[in-house]
Design a protein that fits this description.
319 residues; alpha/beta; Rossmann fold; UDP-galactose 4-epimerase, domain 1; 2 domains; three-stranded parallel β-sheet; 12 helices; 16 strands
Length: 319
């Protein structure tokens, strides 16, 4: 990778991934792609080039690829699970028609493409514990349907046209930089914000509902390492299970309370999010990623909790 277009650069993943790539590839063009209304600000705007990049406009994407000699596209444009359920047609348009545009540009211009999948690509018939790399995927959410289709379409373009497509199935992602935007796992970010601010947290996910989670630095690590992986070792491409930790709200609250004893939490379960969460795996088996490109997370629940609390206290000026 030298010249990279990050589509969705102002989102939860994109805002941090763009800056990571700019630090690691200072000689390249790392273009922050965005849509009107979600413009880059601050250091994201000032540290490198930015362009309007709507995945539904293939000609626009093609022009950016030509202008900056793009060799790799990170496609992070998506409506997250809870939002996608409310706007299913828009979710399909962005996540499927948009991906098709990107793959066509990549086929014509010789770009590699990373489009993340998710634990949302699994469904209630999938084994919930140690979910295999290759298993049944029958999701019942529009978000999940588009993620399965993303995996299949990306593999199709690799086998049919030789487009270098690669992907990981992200768990819920936890960040102290950018808040998420409408995902089922968002509670695992919001709970830390509430705790550090001394607020009671109202949890929308039921006690006992386990989901795979990952700290953002590990997610960024996975997104970069998979694109650097030796292609001769890759048996799979779209998409690899990656895992780090699994917990339910009670376990997470207890970890926070061990650092902030006064922290309070109560439940107001959101039926839609809970139904989605119940259809997802408790814990992924990521042995294929470990074997094929040496994946290994750096954070567990304890080290993540320590770092989240320290970082958010600094962010909010709390002693």
């Amino acid at each position: 990778m030298k010249n990279v277009l990050v589509i969705g650069s102002t989102g939860q993943i994109g805002s941090e991934l763009t800056m990571k790539l700019r630090r690691e590839i200072p000689e390249g063009n790392i273009v922050a792609g965005y849509i009107p209304g979600a413009e880059p600000k601050g250091v994201l705007l000032e540290s490198g080039p930015s362009e309007i990049a709507d995945v539904r406009d293939g000609q626009q994407l093609s022009s950016i690829v030509d202008r900056y000699k793009i060799d790799t596209i990170y496609n992070l444009a998506a409506l997250l699970s809870a939002v996608a359920e409310k706007k299913p047609l828009l979710a399909w348009d962005i996540q499927m028609n948009g991906l098709l545009n990107i793959l066509e540009v990549a086929r014509e211009k010789g770009c590699a493409v990373f489009t993340p999948s998710s634990i949302g690509s699994f469904g209630p018939e999938t084994p919930k514990v140690n979910t295999p790399q290759d298993t049944i995927q029958r999701p019942r959410s529009m978000y999940g349907v588009t993620k399965v289709a993303t995996e299949l379409l990306s593999d199709y373009y690799y086998h049919k046209y030789g487009v270098d497509t690669r992907s990981v199935r992200f768990p819920g992602l936890i960040s102290n930089v950018t808040l998420p935007g409408g995902g089922t796992t968002d509670y695992a970010v919001e709970i830390y914000y509430a705790a550090v601010k001394g607020e009671e947290f109202v949890c929308p996910i039921a006690a006992g509902t386990f989901m795979d989670m990952m700290y953002m630095p590990d997610a960024l690590k996975a997104a970069v390492e998979i694109m650097h992986a030796d292609p001769s070792r890759l048996i799979h491409r779209n998409s690899f299970n990656v895992a780090s930790m699994s917990f339910d709200p009670e376990i997470l609250a207890a970890k926070i309370r061990s650092r902030i004893p006064e922290f309070r939490m109560r439940y107001e379960v959101d039926p839609m999010r809970e139904e989605i969460a119940q259809s997802w795996p408790d814990k992924l088996d990521d042995s294929c990623a470990r074997a094929e490109w040496d994946w290994a997370p750096s954070y567990d629940l304890d080290s993540m909790t320590d770092d989240m609390i320290v970082s958010l206290r600094k962010k909010f000026g709390i002693e």
